[in-house]
Design a protein that fits this description.
Elements lengths: L3 H28 L5 H28 L33 H19 L9 H24 L3 E2 L5 E3 L3 H6 L7 H19 L15 H20 L7 H29 L4 H18 L5 H18 L2 H5 L7 H19 L18 H31 L6 H6 L1 H6 L14 H21 L1
Antiparallel strand pairs: 1-2
Helix pairs in contact: 1-2, 1-3, 1-7, 2-3, 2-4, 3-6, 4-6, 4-13, 6-12, 6-13, 7-8, 7-9, 8-9, 8-10, 9-10, 9-12, 10-12, 12-13
């Protein structure tokens, strides 16, 4: 029998998480220069469109089909095209329709891919990005989702009716809502792609300030709002676990924002709106895996550590020489690692997950599991992403030309401009603008070389 309350909460949470992708588009869009904002937002919307289709065709089966061997991937044929899932039956795990779970997990897949785009802002062909989106989701995200989110189902008599992934079941690492599958996964992929595409023209020399900070703040607010569906919705029920996850998400995020602002004040002499928004996202990332494992006080600690470390980590790209345009590595990879590993220290048996970490007398048993799970996802994602990105770069080309980069990727890739302050008379405005911009780019390039 369907539990209508739980089903309503799952569907509401799925809608909240879906809203996070447009929120991410605003967040990323405001952080880039004016000539790149449309392309940045289109990368999120492109991922939303393509992953929605791939998830139905075979993604759900890859992630949640019965394990095909060694806990690495689900049976690709079991739910191909979501066959057999439209019947009016409830899931094996609870009293909600399986299709509600299908929809909830789909939006996780969407935003994971969209997160990667921030690492390659200003310089990636949209067509190449869409090809990458399809390949990466198929060979990286769908299998990793199986590892982390697909739990083995055992009946009361000991009969196993479904076999899940190795991290969730064999390793028994805790990841309530996606610290590994979403954030470490996307962060490692972002680093790999940033290395494949190389630095933006003028990186480390020219100012590349956010063009619209109100958009950044609006995007961060929408992400914070939607994240309650992301974390509390992962309880898959309207129950105490969801309530604990909700409160921990709220307080960890606030603590992380405060920590980031404090680091800025001490280091730079002022706290910024960009820092506040970035601190919010860092806290959300870090509490994602831990929201059902720690107490509210533990959540504050997670937020403080994540906010401070991520604020420091975003500067590593200048010291180490990689161009992670919008700090996907500094926020999502570092924040995901912080939240995943701190479970091994701060988890308490009083929380819904019921596991004690090192600081609560549990020893290092859970800690080593968290570390192994985090490192496994990081390494898998980085290596495969680098190979995929390099293959696309060598075949169809992933990066736009230097001239096009100077012109502006919105004009070159989409024949549009986000802000049209000048009325262009006669012919195609976009074509005229493109010609003018290209001429300006050639003049700029010639002057630079001279």
């Amino acid at each position: 029998m369907v539990n209508t309350g739980d089903t309503a909460w799952i569907l509401t949470s799925a809608a909240l998480v879906l809203l996070m992708t447009p929120g991410l588009a605003l967040f990323y869009g405001g952080m880039v220069r004016a000539k790149s904002v449309l392309n940045m937002m289109m990368m999120s919307f492109g991922a939303l469109a393509l992953i929605s289709v791939l998830w139905v065709l075979y993604g759900y089966s890859f992630a949640f089909g019965d394990d095909a061997g060694l806990g690495l991937i689900g049976d690709p044929n079991e739910f191909l095209g979501l066959k057999g899932l439209m019947e009016d039956t409830t899931s094996e795990a609870g009293g909600y329709p399986v299709m509600a779970f299908v929809g909830f997990q789909a939006v996780f897949a969407i935003i994971t891919v969209a997160l990667i785009s921030g690492a390659i802002a200003d310089r990636a062909k949209f067509s190449a990005w869409m090809v990458f989106t399809g390949i990466w989701s198929s060979v990286v995200y769908f299998p990793v989702a199986h590892w982390v989110f697909d739990f083995t189902v055992t009946e009361d008599d000991g009969t196993v009716t479904h076999t899940g992934g190795w991290i969730a079941n064999d390793l028994a690492a805790l990841d309530f809502a996606g610290g590994t599958a979403v954030h470490i996964n996307a962060g490692a992929a972002g680093l790999a792609l940033a290395l494949v595409l190389g630095k933006r023209r003028g990186f480390g020399r020219d100012p590349m300030r956010p063009h619209n900070l109100p958009l950044v703040m609006l995007g961060a607010g929408l992400l914070w709002f939607g994240w309650f569906g992301f974390n509390a919705g992962s309880a898959l029920a309207a129950n105490n676990t969801a309530a604990v996850a909700w409160v921990n998400t709220m307080v960890a995020t606030g603590a992380a924002a405060l920590a980031w602002l404090l680091v800025e004040k001490i280091r730079d002499g002022h706290s910024t709106s960009l820092g506040g928004a970035s601190g919010v996202v860092a806290g959300l990332v870090a509490i994602t895996p831990a929201c059902a494992s720690v107490s509210p006080i533990g959540a504050i600690v997670v937020g403080l550590v994540a906010g401070a470390l991520c604020a420091l980590a975003v500067g590593l790209k200048f010291k180490l020489g990689y161009d992670d345009s919008l700090d996907v590595v500094g926020v999502h990879l570092v924040g995901g690692l912080v939240g995943t590993i701190l479970i091994g220290f701060l988890a308490t048996e009083d929380a819904p997950a019921g596991i004690d970490g090192l600081f609560y007398g549990g020893g290092v048993d859970q800690l080593w599991r968290q570390v192994v799970g985090a490192v496994a996802v990081l390494a898998y994602s980085f290596v495969l992403t680098y190979v995929i990105g390099l293959a696309i770069q060598k075949t169809m080309g992933f990066r736009i030309s230097e001239e096009d980069e100077v012109t502006g990727i919105d004009t070159v890739e989409h024949a549009e401009s986000a802000y049209d302050f000048v009325s262009l008379g006669g012919g195609s405005g976009a074509a005229t603008l493109t010609g003018q911009a290209r001429a300006e780019a050639r003049n700029t390039e010639g002057a630079t070389r001279a």
